[in-house]
Design brief:
single chain; alpha/beta; 2 domains; five-stranded mixed beta sheet; three-stranded mixed beta sheet; 8 strands; elongated
């Protein structure tokens, strides 16, 4: 979208979810690419994608999760833990996604209901005193499991979600230096980021001890996974800790027409896959790339036959192909609880390296290819 705004602002109109009918009637296509709350707040009239209720696909073991976000060029340094391969193979509730490019950010998703607690005691803390005196000795799963019992009238997960948000209370993206990080050592950079007290729902010493222990255990697991190298103490303050709520839903339709104009929903998987531990394998990007390729095929065919192109007709064809792709048995299978994401990696031409998944260069290639191509279509 930034590319289109910069290079093709005369051909694109950005309406933040509020597309006036007179604008829509003149458009070749409406690309709807914002989140669930925005779709609910500002639906396009007549757009089934905006208005339909998501189809719940499966139960979520725990609605709460975490992920960390860091730039590899700022963080990774030193040798890997010599046992990192064996540690990853044992299963630790972490799914790591890295790109071959050092310029790209790395995300690691964390849902530890299946953690074997190799890095800490598997026994669940029984009291606030346990957390205050020995919080860091408990494994990550034990720390997750104790919340309902020990939080009392406070809401620990809600408070953690507020502290570990990437946006402020007004929905504005926080600068990196204001985000919550993994640094939990007193006196070190980033140990106590300024935390606005607006709307807080937990502030007890027990909550602070629990939060400190969670950060410690996340850091310890990531170090043992070999992601950071051997000098993690130098850059934990640059690793952002974020909250990820797990909401499984899948939209049946991603294409419709409003005012006789194709309306296509593109987004991060076009439906949450958080319950899959981040294993969507870039579904949103793959679908967007496919839409661009199918649309461009029609544009080229039109240009060869008539010397001109009808963008709306081309997008309509591309959107139908996109909906067929989205509704295919192969795509629907990805929401099954027994789905193995490694097949998706092979299907997409990517490398599957087990728990330390490394996204193949094809992702970056598709990502760079899609936006300029779509930009040329919109700007033609």
């Amino acid at each position: 979208m930034r590319y289109l705004q910069t290079r093709h602002s005369r051909s694109c109109t950005f309406n933040q979810g509020k597309c006036p009918p007179e604008v829509m009637r003149q458009a070749a296509v409406v690309l709807q690419c914002y989140g669930k709350l925005a779709r609910k707040t500002h639906p396009f009239t007549g757009n089934a994608v905006s208005q339909e209720c998501p189809e719940v696909a499966t139960e979520v073991p725990d609605e709460n999760g975490l992920f960390v976000l860091f730039d590899r060029k700022e963080v990774v340094d030193g040798e890997q833990d010599p046992n990192y391969v064996q540690f990853n193979q044992r299963g630790n509730g972490f799914a790591a996604f890295q790109c071959h490019s050092l310029q790209n950010a790395v995300q690691v998703y964390i849902w530890p209901e299946d953690v074997n607690n190799d890095t800490g005691s598997g026994a669940t803390p029984q009291s606030h005193a346990d957390l205050l005196n020995n919080g860091r000795s408990y494994g990550l799963r034990a720390l997750f499991d104790c919340v309902n019992t020990l939080q009392g009238q406070e809401r620990w997960w809600w408070e953690l979600s507020r502290i570990c948000s990437l946006q402020d209370a007004d929905g504005v993206a926080l600068p990196k230096e204001s985000a919550c990080t993994l640094e939990c050592r007193k006196g070190m950079p980033g140990w106590q980021q300024p935390r606005a007290r607006r709307g807080e729902k937990a502030s007890s010493p027990a909550f602070e001890a629990w939060f400190d222990a969670v950060r410690y255990q996340v850091s310890l697991n990531l170090i043992k996974m070999g992601i950071f190298g051997s000098n993690a103490e130098n850059f934990l303050h640059k690793v952002r800790l974020c909250y990820a709520r797990r909401q499984p839903y899948r939209y049946n339709g991603v294409y419709t027409e409003v005012e006789n104009v194709p309306v296509v929903y593109l987004g991060d998987s076009a439906g949450s896959t958080d319950f899959k531990k981040g294993m969507s394998c870039g579904r949103g990007l793959l679908c967007a790339s496919q839409l661009a390729l199918d649309t461009m095929d029609v544009v080229l065919q039109q240009a060869k036959m008539t010397g001109s192109a009808n963008l709306q007709q081309a997008f309509r064809h591309g959107a139908k192909m996109y909906q067929n792709f989205w509704s295919s048995p192969e795509m629907i299978a990805e929401w099954r609880t027994d789905y193995d994401a490694s097949f998706k990696y092979l299907q997409a031409g990517r490398l599957d390296m087990g728990p330390m998944c490394s996204m193949a260069a094809a992702i970056c290639h598709n990502g760079c290819m899609f936006v300029p191509q779509l930009g040329r279509v919109m700007g033609a």
